[in-house]
Amino acid sequence: MTILVAGTLDDDEWRMWWPLLQAALPEERLVREGVEGGDAADIDVALVANPPPGTLQGLPNLKLIQSLWAGVDKLLADATLPAHVPIARMVDPAMTDAMAQTALWAVLALHRGYFEYAAQQRAGVWKQQSALRRADEVTVAILGMGELGRRCARALTEQSYAVAGWSRGDGAAALPSLLARADIVLDLLPLTPATRGLFNAATFAQMRRGASFINLARGAHVVDADLLAALDAGQLEHAVLDVFSTEPLPPAHPYWSHPRVTMLPHVAAPTDPRSAAPIAAANVRALRAGQPLANLVDRARGY
Ligand SMILES: NC(=O)c1ccc[n+]([C@@H]2O[C@H](COP(=O)([O-])OP(=O)(O)OC[C@H]3O[C@@H](n4cnc5c(N)ncnc54)[C@H](OP(=O)(O)O)[C@@H]3O)[C@@H](O)[C@H]2O)c1
């Protein structure tokens, strides 16, 4: 049988991924979508990185779709995705560590005023903030306590922050009271119909005045105009944004120059092909051996 590798990767990314996937699966025949031809009936596994919609239709013997990315919202949005083929996503401890590093950086910078000090340096101002709060006096609400959220909670707890988590099992009714007591709200939710636009005028109003917001998950969680309004009204102190509804963020977008927005270009926790390729390969081998597949996506939940 044959493994199809498909995705919207640029040439540099392909050059990185291709030898690593081949090295991780030396016993398999890999073909790259659109490069090598072959019989569609031979393909039983697809390794994918957000392939263009329609890529995975017409593969009658497909048994596993293994995403090389952690988030599967774009993949699941493909209406032609074969209905009964299991989908696994990427869960990689190296990526999880990277997310914890970014979350810790953002929380530390917000709590200790490092973003303000950076602005002061640009303005030639020497000014020490008074009345520093201890970390245990800073409540960080983590929305989404999955693989990434739990790891971030551990990193923040180790630094003495007061961490409170929210996941689907807690229900929507638990959210307002959590938002009301958080100094920093950290978004690590998947993008699903339930979380799209979750951060809007109503939820920003439920947050404590002067709270800050960190989005390391998906841009479409946020109603951008409402976030800008909350920042401009002083309801929110600062936003740290790694992800955007449109990426790259268009040059004219107000986030670029907003004094209380700190941006990253979707780098909070990039997939590292060196660790991810063997993880994808392990799931292919589990399939071949008839063993349970890891990190399966529940299509009905959307993550
Ligand atoms: N910026 C980056 O570089 C980057 C990198 C990787 C991933 N991401 C994003 O991070 C997201 C999370 O990744 P993960 O691996 O931690 O996902 P995960 O393990 O699937 O965890 C998702 C968490 O969100 C919770 N959740 C889902 N829907 C919810 C809802 N409607 N209300 C409340 N909680 C809800 C889940 O609750 P339950 O525990 O109750 O199921 C779970 O705790 C990914 O989907 C991706 O979009 C971003």
- What is the CATH C-level name of the largest domain? Alpha Beta
Largest sheet: 6 strands, parallel
Q: Give the oligomeric state.
A: single chain
Average pLDDT over all residues: 97
Care to count the β-strands?
11
Taken from the alpha-carbon principal axes, the silhouette is elongated
CATH topology description of the largest domain: Rossmann fold
CATH architecture designation of the largest domain: 3-Layer(aba) Sandwich
Distinct ligands: NADP nicotinamide-adenine-dinucleotide phosphate
Distance between the termini: 28 Å
Helical residue percent band? 25-40%
How is the largest sheet built, in terms of strand order? Answer: 7-6-8-9-10-11
Q: How large a portion of the residues is in β-strands, by DSSP E? A: 15-25%
Q: Secondary-structure element order, as H and E? A: EHEEEHEHHEHEHEHEHEEH
Structural class: alpha/beta
Q: What Rg do the Cα atoms give? A: 21 Å
CATH superfamily placement of the largest domain: NAD(P)-binding Rossmann-like Domain
